[in-house]
Amino acid sequence: MKFKNKTFEEIYDFIAVRAVVKELKDCYGVFT
């Protein structure tokens, strides 16, 4: 945030979730 000169309110995607799965159908199962 300091590097880009942004405030906390300007950061919308501060929390991200990444799931690494072998197949696409498994990805949907992770988030349900």
Name the features.
22% helix; 32 residues; 1 helix; 0% strand; mainly alpha
Note down, in words, how this protein is organized:
The chain is elongated and about 40 Å long. Helices cover 22% and strands 0% of the residues. The mean pLDDT is 69. It has 32 residues and is mostly helical.
* Structural class based on helices, strands and sheet pairing: mainly alpha
Report the uncertain regions.
Answer: none
Average pLDDT confidence is 69
Instruction: Please give the share of residues in helix.
Output: 10-25%
Number of domains: 1
End-to-end separation in angstroms reads: 31 Å
Shape: elongated
Element order, helices and strands? H
| Rg, nearest Å | 15 Å
Number of E-state strands? 0
